[in-house]
Amino acid sequence: MTNAAPYAWVPAPILVTSLWLSACGGGATTAASTTPPATGMSSARQIGAGTPSADERACRSAGDARTCLALGRRYELARGVDRSVPQALELYRLACEQGLGAGCFAWLALIDTDSYFWEQREPALAASVAACESDSADACAAVGFAHDRGLGVDVDYAAALRWYQSSCASGSTRGCTGLADLYWSGDGVEGDPQRAVHLYTQSCAADDPWACSQLGHIYDEGEVVPQDYARARELYERACEGGDPLGCSNWGVVMLEGMGVTPSAERAAQLFERGCREGDAGGCNELGLLYEHGRGVRRDLALARELFVQACMADVAEACEGQARLDGDGD
C-alpha cells in the first residue's frame, strides 16, 4: 500500500458542530461523526443542477422555492460552490417562507448544527407551522423536528412523536424517518428497533439519504438484522451520493478497514475528505488520522493538526486528543 496521495488537499474552514445522530437518538455510528441529516432528500442530480447565478435568479426573482432548496443544498454541501452555511440558511428560509416544507426542514436542521445560528430558531419554527397549516406534510415533519431538538420550543418527544406520526401518515418521508429515529432511541415512545428498521428501509427507498445512512449502520453492526457489510457499504454509498456527509465518512471507514471489500486507505482518504468538506466533523478527524500516520496520503502533521482542530471545535473528543498529541510532539 502506497503512502503517496493521489491529490493534494487543503481544508477550508467548515462549520460543523452538534450531532444530528445523537440529537435524534440514532445510536452510535461507524465513524465518530457530527453531521446534520441530508435535509432536502434531493438526488445528486438535483443538488448539482443549474448554475449558481441562474439558480439564484430563479430563486429570488421568480420565487422558485424548489430551486432555492436545491441551491441551498449546494452551498451546504459545497457542490460546485464554496461551502457557505449562511448562504444555505438564507436560501432554505426563502424556500420555507414560500411554503415548501422541505425547505423548512432543511432550515431547522441546519440551524441545529451550530449555536451561532440559534437566533433563527423561532422564525424558522413559525414559518414551518405556517407551511404545515397550508397542508405541507414535510413542514409538519419540520415542526416535529423542532420539538425533537428544542428549536424555538422546549424539547418534547411526545409532541415530536405526534407530529412525525401525522406527517408520515400524510406521505412525508422526513416524518417517517423522524419517527424511525424515535423508535430506534426510545425517546417519547417504547423503543422498537424492528419498526425503526422498517421505517428506515421505507424512507431509504424513497431517497432519504439520512435513512440510508442509519440503515447502513444497522447492517454494519448486525445487532438487529444479520450483519451484512456488503449491504452496509451499498447503503453508505447511496447516502453519500444522496447528500449525507456522514454516509461518506462511514463509507470511508468501510474502505479503510476492508469490511467486506479490499482495504484501500487511498479511497478512504477521498471519502473522508468529502465527508469533511461537506460538513461531517467525524470525517475531518478520520482524515486527520490518515495524515498523521501517512496512510493513503503523504504524512503531513501540520495538515493533520488543522483537521483535528476543526473536528475538536465540533466536539469530536478523539480529535481533541489528536490535537493535544501533535501539540506535544513538537516535530
Structure characterization notes:
This protein has 331 residues and is an all-alpha fold. It has a domain of 133 residues: Serine Threonine Protein Phosphatase 5, Tetratricopeptide repeat (Alpha Horseshoe). It has 18 helices and no strands. The longest helix is centred in the C-terminal third of the chain and has 14 residues. The two termini are 25 Å apart. The N terminus is likely disordered.
How would you state the average pLDDT, rounded? 85
Helix share, percent: 55-70%
Poorly predicted ranges: 1-49
Task: Please describe the biggest sheet, giving its number of strands, its sense, and whether it closes into a barrel.
Answer: none
State the secondary-structure class: mainly alpha
Top-tier CATH class of the domain at 14-35 and 212-222 and 232-331: Mainly Alpha
CATH topology heading of the domain at 14-35 and 212-222 and 232-331: Serine Threonine Protein Phosphatase 5, Tetratricopeptide repeat
Shape assignment: globular
| Strand residue percentage | under 5%
CATH-scheme architecture of the domain at 14-35 and 212-222 and 232-331? Alpha Horseshoe
Q: Measured on Cα atoms, how large is the radius of gyration?
A: 19 Å
Q: Please, what is the CATH homologous superfamily of the domain at 14-35 and 212-222 and 232-331?
A: Tetratricopeptide repeat domain
| Helix/strand order, N-terminal first | HHHHHHHHHHHHHHHHHH
Number of beta-strand segments:
0
Terminal CA distance reads 25 Å
Question: So how many helices?
Answer: 18
